[in-house]
Amino acid sequence: MSKRKLIISGIVLVVLLIAITSSAYIVDEKEQVVITQFGRPIGVAVTTPGVNFKIPFIQDANVFDKRYLEWDGDPNQIPTKDKKFIFIDTYARWQITDPLQFYKRLTNERGAQSRLNDILDGETRDYIANHNLVEAVRNSNRKAIITDTLTEPSSDTLLDINVGREKIEKMILKTGNERVSDLGIVILDFKIKRLNYVDEVRENVFKRMNSERFRIADKFRSEGQGQASRINGEQVRELKIIQSTAFEKAERIKGKADATAAAIYASGYNQSANSKNLYSFLKSMETFEKTFDKNTSVILSTDSELYKYLKTKQ
């Protein structure tokens, strides 16, 4: 009999232990809990950390995260107001602020992600389609800074914007929060992660950019060749000026030297008769030296000025 009581006591103890384990639940500081009974929420949400109890086997604890949660949108192909097709990739951060309402409307995070897909993707498509591409790309009307010598400012980058990318993001965030206000969540932030042309348009843009670069390069090359021709022309002109000046200076010096030599010759010629004879002899010898060599044959008359120095006295 005692053995039977012992078995029964053990069974009761195990049942009590299971009941206590099933009824107790711990709320973490990063969690919040909604208690449901047969799938219907009862009471208020438990948001205070600690140990709590529920009716075992009848009530369930549905745990939701208190922290910021991530939403990552799928890249979508969207036409802008100026009929340019682009791929746009977005992301957002959201938080469960009313877990009870959240459970009633969305049940779990998967339902919330699906609802955010509908809301944020739809709002993104609407706002992008109602603005030009430049509005979705730029934030302000700051001046373009040219850092590449082969880059010229284009009309697209200098267009004034009235809204800008940052304001479009804020408008999507505001409209999105208005639409999720009864879902027990709040969208904390919304950003455009990446924006690009579709493949067909991007290929055309790259081709246009390449042709523009080639045009600018040809322009710089042509200007460089023009500068080189101008510099070479100036060098030739300066060289001719230097040569002309040097030739003029050399001729002036040569003429001055000839004049000095002529003056010396004239001065020597005007000396005494012996000096005149010596001068005539030296000039004749100089003429012989410059005119004749050992192979030269000369026919002179007897009255030649040169002959008188060659003939011998009998």
Question: What features would you highlight for this structure?
Answer:
314 residues; Tetrahydropterin Synthase, Chain A; 3 domains; four-stranded antiparallel beta sheet; 7 helices; rod-shaped
How does this model look, in words?
By secondary structure, this protein is an alpha+beta fold. The protein folds into three domains: 63 residues, no CATH class; 129 residues, Tetrahydropterin Synthase, Chain A; 61 residues, no CATH class. The chain has seven helices and nine strands; from the N terminus they run H-E-E-E-E-E-E-E-E-H-H-H-H-E-H-H. The strands form three sheets. Strands 6, 7, 8 and 9 form a four-stranded antiparallel sheet that branches. Strands 3-2-5 form a three-stranded antiparallel sheet. Helix 3 crosses helix 5. The chain is rod-shaped and about 180 Å long. The model has no long low-confidence stretch (mean pLDDT 82).
